[in-house]
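Q: What changes when calcium ion is included in the input?
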Amino acid sequence: MSSNLYDVAYQMEKVIRSSAEYTQLRKLYDEVNADASARVMFENFRDIQMKLQQKQMMGQEITPEEVEQAQKTVALVQQHQSISRLMEAEQRMSMVIADLNRIIMKPLEDLYGVPGQQ
Amino acid sequence: MSSNLYDVAYQMEKVIRSSAEYTQLRKLYDEVNADASARVMFENFRDIQMKLQQKQMMGQEITPEEVEQAQKTVALVQQHQSISRLMEAEQRMSMVIADLNRIIMKPLEDLYGVPGQQ
Ligand SMILES: [Ca+2]
Ligand SMILES: [Ca+2]
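A: The predicted holo structure follows.
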């Protein structure tokens, strides 16, 4: 890989790190993790989300009980101010990353068409 | 998203587009697509690969016949000079993109740990 590619990648890393979206995300992440009960609640939420995503990806059936449990956990974390703010910050960061990827992947898209539709 | 993030993304797009890896990939891609028999052979190979990947992702069983068919198609395209060179160029481009992503995703990795292992 040419040094130009590395240079611009490291520059992007720096810009991401100093962006409002990332610094806000970091602040809220630290806030939630500094509060033991918030951290446990958030980790539990994450575990349930990931388990369901994995089942979905594997084409496994998700039971009504699992759906109900997931909905209850979402409702719980949404009522927690720090966690819900963290989740909003994560959403914004994801959108930034998606935007960056769309721009960066344009040369390959030009070659192969829309990603996943080759 | 701040203009800094857009600026650096567009700069990276430009650097990727003018990289040796991308220009070589584009050249070989055009070469294969300009040759009707090579194009059909390559598209057939791609279709088989994608079908197997999708089955694997869905946790579906891949039959010995499908494995054999895939191996035969790989052997066939590897003997075709333009296609095998295109596949090598694709591999190199993938490695560049993976390297860039590793660098760009470092800020988020610092927060969440190794991606996929949250
Ligand atoms: Ca295509
Ligand atoms: Ca972690």
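Observations recorded in class: The mean pLDDT of chain B is 91.
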